[in-house]
């Protein structure tokens, strides 16, 4: 038997190596002779802090420097910020070129622990190296600041990026506008939108929804209508989102003539109404007790082959019961497929503006118990709601 020592930069492992099978004269080693093996109490996988102790200065080769990024990520993710800073200085003194993936994970780790000053320091230290990926590093820092809601640092980084001659592309511009919509005030959001328009970028659907939600939270429905008009109602790559938001801005204040006029314009412009479009009108008709318009809207849905959902049935049921016309309810329901399985396709923005009806809320409570009955049809839900509605109008005297 001979002892072979295998050493690396990270650990020292001592193994026993037997002779090859060509020396047949030596008998095979039995397991119970393990008392002759050279053992060590040091673990094979050492902790990161012990790695630095065993690393000699003359052994810092390319393999050791390649392990420093993972070591720095380990320190950052576990809150050892002093050690991570020391490791970063070692990386700067070496020939290390940071990759986009490494900087992205590093910035994300710092942002999760709200150590924004470390991100700024790393960004400034990368400036002196004239890297080709520097614009992407600025974009990563801006995204981290914005996603954390630190709009001040985000704006300062944007100004610094522009001052260095780097351009903001459409993707980053949409992200910046999204962060202002979510975390900023209406004035900040509108100011950012003005700068975005001057850049002639195309606003994406998720940013449109974020800005619309900002107006809806403040109940600024006139401003919501002006915003979607400014974006352009003729855009087809976002579906009916812009038209539905415009109709919703009128339905919120029950401006029925404007609502009908814009719906006709929508159809004439070549847009096909979806279930959200019809339900915005149906909810307004139901609240205003416009039964004839509600009937025509349901007939229009049938002609367009748009399947009604839970909101549509709720508008019909509540319109008749609120006016004590429950006996005439069958007249409308006979034209609808009440035995169909329940579904909900309406855009959640509608509920943010007009809320959920009583039938909708009551049905959601029943739909939670799917184990008791696998198929909840509209007929069953309407029957249960009618029973509940008539019971609450009765007075029970307890003596």
Describe, in plain words, how this protein is organized in 3D.
The protein has 399 residues and is mainly alpha-helical. It has a domain at 273-394. It has helices spanning 48-54, 62-77, 81-93, 100-112, 116-127, 134-147, 151-163, 170-183, 186-198, 205-217, 221-231, 241-251, 256-268, 275-287, 291-303, 310-322, 329-333, 349-354, 358-367, 378-392; strands spanning 2-7, 12-17. A hairpin with a 4-residue loop joins β1 and β2 (12-17). α6 packs parallel to α8, α12 packs parallel to α14 and α16 (310-322) crosses α19. The protein is elongated. Residues 1-65 have low confidence and may be disordered.
Short description:
With 399 residues, this protein is mainly alpha-helical. It has 20 helices and two strands. InterPro entries: PPR_rpt (IPR002885), TPR-like_helical_dom_sf (IPR011990).
Task: Supply database-style keywords.
single chain, 399 residues, mainly alpha, two-stranded antiparallel sheet, 20 helices, 2 strands, 60% helix, elongated, disordered N terminus
Q: Total number of helical segments?
A: 20
How much β-strand is present in the residues? under 5%
End-to-end separation in angstroms reads 100 Å
Structural class: mainly alpha
What is the H-and-E element order?
EEHHHHHHHHHHHHHHHHHHHH
- Strands, count: 2
Unreliable stretches covering 5 or more consecutive residues: 1-65
Strand order of the largest sheet: 1-2
User: Quick one: biggest sheet?
Assistant: 2 strands, antiparallel
Rg, Å, rounded: 34 Å
């Amino acid at each position: 038997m001979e002892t072979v020592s295998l050493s690396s930069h990270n650990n020292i492992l001592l193994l026993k190596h037997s002779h090859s099978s060509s020396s047949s004269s030596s008998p095979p080693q039995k397991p119970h002779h393990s008392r002759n093996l050279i053992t060590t109490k040091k673990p094979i996988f050492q902790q990161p802090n012990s790695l630095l102790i065993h690393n000699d200065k003359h052994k810092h080769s390319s393999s050791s420097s390649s392990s420093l990024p993972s070591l720095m990520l380990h320190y950052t993710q576990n809150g050892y910020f002093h050690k991570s800073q020391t490791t970063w200085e070692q990386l700067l003194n070496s020939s290390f070129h940071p990759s986009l993936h490494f900087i992205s994970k590093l910035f994300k780790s710092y942002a999760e622990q709200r150590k924004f000053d470390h991100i700024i320091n790393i960004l400034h230290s990368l400036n002196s190296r004239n890297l080709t990926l520097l614009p992407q590093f600025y974009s990563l820092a801006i995204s981290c600041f914005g996603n954390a809601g630190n709009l001040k640092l985000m704006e300062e980084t944007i100004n610094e990026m522009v001052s260095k001659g780097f351009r903001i592309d459409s993707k980053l511009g949409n992200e910046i506008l999204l962060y202002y919509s979510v975390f900023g005030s209406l004035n900040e959001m509108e100011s950012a939108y003005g700068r975005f328009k001057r850049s002639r970028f195309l606003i994406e659907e998720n940013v449109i929804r974020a800005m619309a939600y900002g107006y809806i939270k403040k109940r600024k429905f006139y401003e919501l209508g002006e915003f979607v008009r400014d974006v352009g109602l003729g855009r087809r790559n976002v579906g009916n989102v812009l038209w539905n938001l415009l109709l919703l801005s009128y339905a919120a204040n029950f401006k029925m003539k404007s609502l009908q006029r814009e719906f006709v314009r929508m159809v004439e412009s070549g847009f096909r109404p979806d279930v959200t479009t019809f339900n915005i009108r149906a909810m307004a008709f139901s609240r205003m007790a416009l039964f004839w318009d509600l009937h025509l809207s349901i007939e229009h849905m049938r002609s367009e082959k748009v399947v009604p959902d839970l909101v549509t049935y709720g508008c019909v049921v509540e319109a008749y019961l609120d006016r004590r016309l429950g006996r005439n309810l069958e007249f409308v329901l006979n034209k609808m497929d009440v035995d169909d399985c329940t579904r909900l396709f309406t855009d959640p923005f509608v509920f943010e503006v007009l809320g959920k009806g009583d039938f909708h809320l009551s049905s959601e409570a029943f739909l939670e118990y799917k184990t008791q009955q696998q198929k909840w049809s509209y007929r069953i839900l309407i029957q249960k709601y009618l029973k509940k509605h008539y019971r609450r109008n009765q007075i029970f005297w307890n003596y």
